[in-house]
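Data card: per-record layout.
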Amino acid sequence: MFTGLIEGVGALRAREPRGGDARLIIEAGTLPFDDVRLGESIAVNGCCLTVVAFDVDSFAVDASRETLALTTLGQLPLGAPLNLERALRPSDRLGGHLVSGHVDGLGQAEACWEDARAVRWRFSAPRGLLRYIAHKGSVCVDGVSLTVNAVDEAGFEVALIPHTVAHTAFHALRVGDAVNIEVDLLARYLERLRQTEGWA
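The structure for this 200-residue chain is written out next.
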């Protein structure tokens, strides 16, 4: 589990084909990295991935064909900045919202404009995901926990304060770019519970 509060920005150093899937080599960048362990989980642009190797300034993860096909990790260019977050510990403050690191689908950056000192972004998203996105609810975009400022049948809007822009890969996002979206866990489980009410 994660919080959606980005701990550091790294970069995609290499994508090595491995029998149909790929090994990603990721520069740790500003991620606190002195206690990394084999087998631990790190969210990379919102995707929960397992550390399979590391050195002093980078780590490697294996990305399955599904991960490569259903997230941005299969298409990002080498050198692309990446939002990084280590897994939540039980004693940590939960400053964002509960994030599983299981990306639900891709959205697209549709527009961007200044909103006082903030930067407002509009993202399109599949209708199947928009049903779980609520005004003033939480959504995870490229691993960043954000509050939904507006939502309609075609997309949603969020506002990024200067700190978020400066300390995440959002500083490099451009209109037209694809983004990873994870909807709120509670919304998915509530719908599933409603679907199975007659099972008992």
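Known properties of this structure: The chain is about 15% helix and 40% strand. The two ends are 29 Å apart (CA to CA).

See the next section for split statistics.
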